[in-house]
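Before a colleague's protein record goes any further, I have to sign it off. I want your independent view on whether this chain really folds as the tokens say. The record follows directly below this note.
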Amino acid sequence: MGVIGSADVKSETAQQAQAIGAAICRAGAHLVCGGMGGVMEHACHGFVDERHALGGRNCGVTIGILPGMFRTDANPYVDVIIPSNIGIMRNVLVVQTSDVLVAVAGGAGTLSELAAGWQQGKTLIALSCTGGWSAELAGKHVDGRRPDAVIDAPTVEEVERRLLKLIGPAPDRT
């Protein structure tokens, strides 16, 4: 599951990103992101905290695809650090690596990821209550090449419900 969004976030958006990271962990999936701060860091933080709470059973890992070449630029919650040294072009790698993209708020970088995801046929979920491109594109078609729309998820709970519908529940953790 890919998480994309703003590099700078307000407190409420940070909490929502953490909750999405935790939901991805509970689903038993890996979390892919750009590996830096903001939404990316908070989603990874939520994922790692949830993994610890679950004792690490049937949990995936966090993967950060960095724009630069220095592993030390990654946020402290990234398990697998991939320094790409290709700048914003790494956005396409984040999209390509993800089965589903969850957008939280977002500026121009998030817009580029949403457009790439749309063109690659990825399922796109927008947490519309966070503003930015998530709110702008929620429930809309990016263009006419696909019959579906960006899924509007107005709450974190709706994001989790949609994720579970798409990938099913995590394996038994007993």
Observations:
- The helical segments are 11-26, 39-53, 90-97, 108-119, 132-137, 156-167.
- The chain has a mean pLDDT of 95.
- The longest strand covers residues 62-66.
- The longest helix spans residues 11-26.
